[in-house]
Amino acid sequence: MITGDELQSRIRAMQALLKEQQLDGALFIFPIDVYYFSATRQNGALWMPVEGTPTLLIRKSYERARRESPLSDIRPFPSSREFPGVIPETATRIGMTFDVVPVQQRDYYARLLAGREFVDISPFNRQLRSVKSPAELEMLRRSGTSLSAVFAEVPQFLVAGMREIDLAAEFECRLRKAGSEGYVRMRAFNQELFQGLAVSTGGPSFGFFDGAVTGRGLSNASPHGASLEVVERNTPILLDYTGVFQGYITDMTRIFVMGDLDEELKHAFDVSLSIQEMLRASLKPGAICEELFLQAAEMAAQAGLKDNFMGMPGEQARFVGHGVGLELDEFPVLAQGFKMALQQGQTVAIEPKFVFPEKGVIGIENTFAVTAEGGDKLTELPDNIVFM
Amino acid sequence: MITGDELQSRIRAMQALLKEQQLDGALFIFPIDVYYFSATRQNGALWMPVEGTPTLLIRKSYERARRESPLSDIRPFPSSREFPGVIPETATRIGMTFDVVPVQQRDYYARLLAGREFVDISPFNRQLRSVKSPAELEMLRRSGTSLSAVFAEVPQFLVAGMREIDLAAEFECRLRKAGSEGYVRMRAFNQELFQGLAVSTGGPSFGFFDGAVTGRGLSNASPHGASLEVVERNTPILLDYTGVFQGYITDMTRIFVMGDLDEELKHAFDVSLSIQEMLRASLKPGAICEELFLQAAEMAAQAGLKDNFMGMPGEQARFVGHGVGLELDEFPVLAQGFKMALQQGQTVAIEPKFVFPEKGVIGIENTFAVTAEGGDKLTELPDNIVFM
Questions:
Q1: Beta-carbon count within 10 A of B27 CB
Q2: CB pairs below 8 Å between A and B: how many?
Q3: Which among A64, A99, A246 has CB closest to B221?
Q4: Is the ipTM of this complex over 0.85?
Q5: Which of B96, B125, B129, B189 to mutate to test the interface with A (most CBs of A within 10 A)?
Q6: Class of domain B4-128 (CATH, top level)
Q7: Which residues, 6 or more positions from B131, have their beta carbon under 8 angstroms from its beta carbon?
Q8: pLDDT tens digits, A115-140
């Protein structure tokens, strides 16, 4: 799937960035960082010198890492005494991804490599990974296709009297049978997500999750997603789910209705489609993320939906799209304060949504690739509300 | 569920430990640490002075945190300028859980609170949480009962021709409908788990996971759990699943067989039952964790199964049980090197298992509470292999 050539080009790109930052190398220990550069998610660390061949050190499973990774230098994880021998003494400035590495881990390696300086490389690590190769785009496209197929089946199992959790369980069952890996990786501290949300009357809830819709969840310990509430007629039923295939995450949302919908909600849905279309057309290299968010917010305001846009009143999210890939919250973010320009090959989930505390939640979400012609939709399925 | 009195007693216990360590307080920012002391898993931080009332600072959702937490002092998260005002200047030594707090987060708070010393309190934080209150034991018992009920249904949906992933999907569907929250929290760096494992021929695999059985998984990115292999007749089908109810995790394993089993596997299963019974009888306050592991390993060796005990040859796990609660990998660990004595009210998943690379994986797992009379089984279901 991930060839040696592809890995070499990822490694060369990172090495160029390390050089720019005047670093002598980087020590990757976070599993998905190691995976990106080695093609194996076994437990270990990757030493990447600023020039030359990286060394993959594996705690468990060495057997499996050797089978999976095309890297040439793979070794069993050394003892603490031998560890410093792996990293040349000339390497005095070493990069690490401090956004995800716990203090205990950093301190452990700082003791092993006493006298070296550790430097945070999180921002440019995320920046690098945000741009997908053709092979990654192909995996994301397949992920989107598989996820879309499960969405297409919803009318076969959505029935009156179900609780949100029953709907979630039926959706997740089909998603897993389609091969979704279930475990959705998020990078941001303090965020966590199960596979997605199935929410109706429980949808308009306050919550910790950085998103427009949080859902009530099953308890105060897991206050997110489906609840025990029964899905009701004439109320939007929102399914916001991720598919995880070969590690690559796509994200989409569709609305289902048993019966009919209030005009205000139908109007809001149409606005979400217009915003999506504006953003899709703008998903070109060079577009500034923040500007796209501000344009979307302006369209919501023009439509009289400022207070409903992207969340519960007082807790509205300040973004309308987020990068996806090996993690659900990759760069770029179409958000206030995010002034980066889009690049060819980035993949973004666009999700204009509206929350009406008394009426429900509504909106659309698809995953797109950034191209010179605008967003290329990876989650091919009609966008319409499915009335049943 | 979690009363104000219960929180007060948790807080007093932590404050006593902070005092012992000559700390002026602790700043909890990891979500499950905040939840344990506040009863709300919203996004924020908990300042706990060594004496007096803690302050809960909430980023999102303040609304929901106020509804859920019985704490008296709950405030919206302050600006960086106001933050130092929340923590008295006299607090110069501040505890933090460095096992899970990323470097970036620690550095952020260290800048806000310049001049203060931050000290790792991970070990005694884990130690404190390992002992469950009567209310927690009741929640764990309910978690075990709900999980057991799903295991009891397996013969209704396990059929020939299924792939491991189909079996996983059907099990998970019922588990979710029973109210399991799905998201299984693990504390250890570099570990991650979906809801559990459904493995048969794919069972005897190498893998990163710290456990006896890892499974092949669906890809190199998610190399754990069910695979696309079809479950076979006359081969053990192992289901190892967690239930997560009100945040509290129980863990159990049962074996199902379509047809009959090889005598060596039946023998190994009987040995796993004997080991479980020895450990159950020993789960009393004062028993030393390491000794229990060594006794279990000795029983396996006496039975001629040393090389099969707890993992693939060369990658055998050095534990036979682990604490469970809000996280799957709590203290205590029945492991080599873990010299702590058991305490009344700890809860431990005991899982003696054997791996035969050519034949399959077999064993048992139940969750027990430590009592003066030995382990009290929280996952009530017969232990036998279910032949179909």
A1: 24
A2: 215
A3: A246
A4: yes
A5: B189
A6: alpha beta
A7: B343, B344, B345, B346
A8: 999 999 999 999 999 999 999 999 99
